[in-house]
Amino acid sequence: MTTFVDRVTLHVEAGKGGHGVASVHREKFKPLGGPDGGNGGHGGDVVLVVDPQVTTLLDYHRSPHRRATNGAPGAGDEKNGANGVDLVLPVPEGTVVTNSRGDVLVDLVGADARFVVATGGRGGLGNRALASRRRKAPGFALLGEPGEATDVVLELKSLADVALIGFPSAGKSSLVSVLSAAKPKIADYPFTTLVPNLGVVTAGDMRYTVADVPGLIPGASEGRGLGLEFLRHVERCSVLVHVIDCATLEPGRDPMTDLDVIEEELSAYVADETLGGLPLSERTRIVVLNKADVPEARELAEMVKPDLQERGIEVFIVSAVAHQGLKELTFAMARHVVEARQNIESDVTPQRAVLRPKAVDDSGFVVRRETTSEGEVFRVIGAKVTRWVHQTDFANNEAIGYLSDRLNRAGVEDELTKAGAVAGSTVLIGPEDNAVVFDWEPTLVGGAELLGGRGQDQRLDENTRRTTSERREEFYARKDAQSAAREELRDERESGHWVDE
Fold it and tell me: Which residues lie below 8 Å from residue 262, measured CB to CB, with a gap of 6+?
């Protein structure tokens, strides 16, 4: 059964925003009291938080799909919907979050460190919030915005000061068990340690952490054995301690060869520079010649110690079983850890808040002309216009008109005209995998072509009103026509054309 997981792919989805509501206030003797529809609540966020009590990503390995709660819809009487509850996911310290492309989003170090991995959707406005002097009684409301949905990779990279590295069964777990209170599994067969074990070591008034990394073999940097899976746990460690088995009976094994093989694997492993700083091959080295309680092993250790010291490496002969040489080793590791921490502090530059104001000519969207298999289309790309489309109820004609007004005021129609769009062109707004398709019909502004300079209107200069004399002439002309018609009828009657019964 799996008890330790240090890498998972997490599928997260933030909560949807609640819909706004279109409502009219009603009470006795006030049948139309005005709009009173409330706003929808915002959807909950998905947040990663460092929890010192969590040491593995096992829970997310078993259930990798996580979703925050949605915002509640609004109601009449100006009642806003409740916001969705944020989904807080505890992770171990030292968790690195990357996106599907492998880009590092955040390195979670420090208790209570937080990162919003998916943002909840905004709640839709009700018709009360949409009312204005021009639109006093909106018959529509805005829909809630969908929450972000994304896939992220959580990778646990142990946060320790010292890493114990070496071949399997070199005595690393035994060394951690006697230097700290950690109780790792210890047995007389290879690859006993399948997961990194962390222990806290005290040397005087100095405290630091030591990680027991699973055994490495030739080709570990290329994926052989367990090396590739756990070499990344060494990336954060400032001091590397080679634990060499001086009592091994395997053919072709000796302390100098073991050291060279592990060093070659360290140099071949490409570490993330943003996590550990220096490459593994440039970290501080200490060599521990272990199992000195065996007489033959101690003789071998005494023989190779001068050769190792000639390389400029600090060497200690110890026995984890007999507790020999441990005090000197713990103080030496503490000294190197202090130096490493001081170097890290000196390299840290204070963070500065960089303000990037919006450009004056930044409209918040772009119009891109594309040629697809179905013909030429015009794609409008922008977070604001995409949100407007998502919040529109296309079953409501008034809501569609409101969207058209917003897009027109934002300058979308002007940019479409500049890009070459004409009436009937296909316009796509929204993400490529879920865009809304429109057949564009430009908005016509009646009389705009007759407007002159500012404060002038050519329609006011038109003099088409009749004068009094013109109206008098028309009146007398009508009277004369009526008199002539009566005279003609009288003459026809006298001549016998009309006969009374």
Answer: 165, 166, 167, 216, 242
Give the pLDDT score at 359: 57
* Beta pairing partners, 65: 11
Architecture of the domain delimited by 366-448: 2-Layer Sandwich (3.30)
- Does 260 score more than 60 pLDDT? yes
User: Taking the CA of residue 322 as centre, how many other CA atoms within 13 Å lie in the half-sphere pointing to its CB?
Assistant: 12
pLDDT confidence of residue 271? 66
Which amino acid, residue 261? Answer: V
User: Is a pLDDT exceeding 50 seen at residue 144?
Assistant: yes
**Residues at the annotated binding site for GTP?**
166-173, 191-195, 212-215, 290-293, 319-321
In the annotated binding site for Mg(2+), the residues are 173, 193
Inter-residue contact 316 to 162 (CB < 8 Å): no
Handedness of CA 241, 246, 247, 250 (dihedral sign): positive
Q: Which two tokens stand for residue 41?
A: 């609540």
% pLDDT > 90, the chain = 22
What string of DSSP letters covers 36-81? -PPPPPPPPPEEEEE-TT----HHHHH--EEEPPPPPP-BTTTBPP
Q: What is the DSSP code string of 182-248? A: ------SSTT---S-EEEEEEETTEEEEEEEPPP--TTGGGT-TTHHHHHGGGTT-SEEEEEEETT-
CB 340 within 8 A of CB 284: yes
CA angle 54–275–263, rounded 5-degree value: 105
Give the start-to-end residue ranges of the domains of the chain: 1-156, 162-346, 366-448
> How many alpha carbons lie under 13 Å from residue 325 in its C-beta half-sphere?
18
User: Are the C-beta atoms of 49 and 167 separated by less than 8 Å?
Assistant: no
The CATH superfamily label for domain 1-156 reads GTP1/OBG domain (2.70.210.12)
Contacts of 23 (CB under 8 A, 6+ apart): 35, 36, 37, 38, 75, 76, 77, 126, 127, 128
Confidence of residue 272 (pLDDT cuts 50, 70, 90): low
Q: In angstroms, rounded to a whole number, what is the distance separating the alpha carbons of residues 463 and 484?
A: 34
Which CATH number applies to 162-346? 3.40.50.300
Q: Is the pLDDT score of 234 beyond 90?
A: no
Do 334 and 204 meet the contact criterion of CB atoms below 8 Å apart? yes
Total length of the chain = 501
114 compared with 30, residue with greater pLDDT: 114
**Residues in the annotated binding site:** 166-173, 191-195, 212-215, 290-293, 319-321
- What gap in Å lies between CA 491 and CA 13, rounded to an integer? 96
b/e map 203-236, b = 16+ CB within 10 Å: beeeebbbbbbbbbbeebbeeebbbbebbbbbbb
Question: What is the C-alpha to C-alpha distance for residues 90 and 58, in angstroms, rounded to an integer?
Answer: 11
Beta bridge partners of 91: 50
